[in-house]
Amino acid sequence: MTKNLLVQIAYRGTNYHGFQFQTNALSITEVVQDKIEQVFGRREPIIGCSRTDAGVHANSCFFSMKTDVPFPTHKFPEVLNRILPKDIVVLSCKEVPLDFHARYCCKGKEYLYRIYNNPVKDPFLSDLALHCKFPLDCARMEENAKPLIGTHDFTSFCNPNHKEGMSTIRTISELRFIREGDMVTMKIHADGFLYNMVRIIVGTLLEMEEGRIAHGRMEEILHLLDRSKAGRTAPPYGLYLNRVDY
């Protein structure tokens, strides 16, 4: 009897070329499928909730998988975690309706971007947070980001390689900054994200803090619908998929 499983995982993306399968590089999908095949005796296709880029991490990521292998669902995390590499872990597994799709049934996502804000770098955070030497003003960054909240065309904050014909309209419901000592975290929640959207938003706000882009220009940049008017794309290693809403 076929059942549809929804599997929650977390991973450190440093050693992988993103979640989605790549023909010429190691991905999270390939490693997970290899281990499932080792247990189930067959290679089951999996559907991810998001295509995280190379070097991006996930505190919570989901994939769905249909199988008719008679394997107890509650044992899935325990058995897979025995053989998965130390930088990937299965958090949970449950059976869902056959028509459930991990990507298309998603109603929203939350990302975190972590910035270590200290003149001296921390060697233990080299692939887990962006190092920023100059002081960051969280209140000012939130004020600069306010025009992004709501439903807009985010072409200015999208990689030009975004697939032609796909909508660039998204709705951001939350964007705020939290400081805990030297760690500054941007939390952003939306109904969906464009290619590199979060990283470009971070890069633009950092350039405002640096003085490369004038404060208060975010609304203008947003309405210009021109990627060249926004700031740089921040590195991937500060980015975490943190929550997925179903």
Automatic annotation (TrEMBL):
Major enzyme class: isomerase
InterPro entries found in the cross-reference section: PsdUridine_synth_cat_dom_sf, PsdUridine_synth_TruA, PsdUridine_synth_TruA_a/b_dom, PsdUridine_synth_TruA_C, TruA/RsuA/RluB/E/F_N
Gene Ontology molecular function: any one: tRNA pseudouridine(38-40) synthase activity
Keyword Manganese in annotation: no
Catalytic activity, reaction form: uridine(38/39/40) in tRNA = pseudouridine(38/39/40) in tRNA
Keyword line: Isomerase, tRNA processing
Domain Pseudouridine synthase I TruA alpha/beta: 10-104, 145-246
E.C. code: 5.4.99.12
Signal sequence, renumbered to the chain: none
Pfam families, per database record: PseudoU_synth_1
Active site positions, chain numbering: D53 (nucleophile)
Binding site for substrate: Y111
Biological process according to GO: tRNA pseudouridine synthesis
Family: Belongs to the tRNA pseudouridine synthase TruA family.
NCBIfam families given in the database record: hisT_truA (TIGR00071)
Role of this protein: Formation of pseudouridine at positions 38, 39 and 40 in the anticodon stem and loop of transfer RNAs.
PANTHER family membership: PSEUDOURIDYLATE SYNTHASE, TRNA PSEUDOURIDINE SYNTHASE-LIKE 1
Subunit architecture: Homodimer.
Protein name: tRNA pseudouridine synthase A
Organism expressing this protein natively: Merdimmobilis hominis
Lineage, broadest ranks: Bacteria, Bacillati, Bacillota, Clostridia, Eubacteriales
Gene name of this polypeptide: truA
